[in-house]
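worker-3 :: picked Phosphoesterase
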Amino acid sequence: MRILVLSDSHRDSFSLKEAIDAQPGAKTVFFLGDGLAELDALIPQYPGKTFFSVRGNCDWGSAAREIGLVTVDQTSIFYTHGHNYHVKYSLYDLKSAARTAGARVLLYGHTHEPMQSYEEGLYIVNPGTVSGSRTGKRTYGILDLTPAGVVTNIVELR
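worker-3 :: tokens ->
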């Protein structure tokens, strides 16, 4: 099962749509904040997809949750924007929260820096920023949940 992971669109609905369209096989989409208004406007165009989202520090006035935990295809996924865990300085608190929640996968945004790693049973993915703000690179993440395990990837929009 393919999962699309997006974050930090910052009013760039064109890039957000471009990333969703680039992965038609991804029936599940995680959006990690800072652009919920753009996402909410696009969701009706994708009736065959399931969306999970959290608000970020720039989603002013949103009533959306800040943390989510969901099981997809028997894989527990902890997801958040990351600002409440001070991820620009350390991932310690965030990884601790994900492990306490029993997650196998941790998804976060906020830094605009894409990264993927595997640490002591926990897959960690930050898709970067789909808008390219601050980094100049428009990126998103992919999770493939397979019988053999989890495969992560960072993809750059051209």
